[in-house]
Amino acid sequence: MHIPTTMLNGAVCPVTLAVGASGVGCAAYYARKIGKKISSIRFAAITALIFALQMLNYPVQNGTSGHLIGAAIGVAFLGIPFAVLSMSIVLAVQAIFFGDGGVNALGANILNMALIGVGLAGFVYERVKAKGFGENSALAVAGFLSVMASAFACSVEISLSGVAEFGKVIPAMMSVHTLIGVGEAILTVVVVAAVNAYGFSRKANEIRFAVGAFGLALLAVLISPFASGFPDGLEWVAGKLAFVELGGRTFFTIFPDYRVFFVGNAGLSTIIAGIAGIAIVFSCTFATGKVLRKERFEVL
User: 5-293 adopts what CATH topology?
Assistant: First the structure.
């Protein structure tokens, strides 16, 4: 659902950038003020895991694929403010280093997936649990709705840019992302259960937690060459509706399409790029956590 360079223009870009930046600033403020502190290493490990999981596209239908957003996973392990920052870091690294989502559309992608996706996931997650439902139910509903809300926001922005008619893009996006949302719900429950099953729960030792989450991230990267090559939901809708292609500027990226240019083997190239990606994400997030907590740069 990452909006590329060619799908947004005009006032949509600066407006969403301003809103996205303001939202990230608010999240950083509350992350510093929140009573329950999240350790830097936990923050970094979960962010690296979300980055890696987003590399795993799974087939949906009719030559379409989807991938985890990970909003509910972030909320479950980090809480809303840190999860917003986590998702924002993932999106920024993807846009700058991998060309996944246009740099000019970064504000929109942060608004859609970090602010709306994570914010709604957190609200729903807490409300569902407050109603007496179990953890898995709360995670599933939160994951599903985070995808639907993000897809709707994405559709509105694309329509406002004049790329496609509102009355056509909304039903197309929402229908395909209903299936992707079901996948998000199932995989969110599975991933959280997998983390907790090995004792890396929210109450576990932070180093042990980080090792477990980072290990799962590495596993995801290692199997990423086997991910579906079908276009994702947004790309599929763009092809179906023949979106008007805008003349957005393309920026140089180090790992275009999650590839290393000097490695000939496609699978190995993806793995190396993915490992580099989780290292970048982990480092950026760990440093951000230290700054937010006003700590020296030590492991804990």
Answer: Arp2/3 complex 21 kDa subunit ARPC3 (1.10.1760)
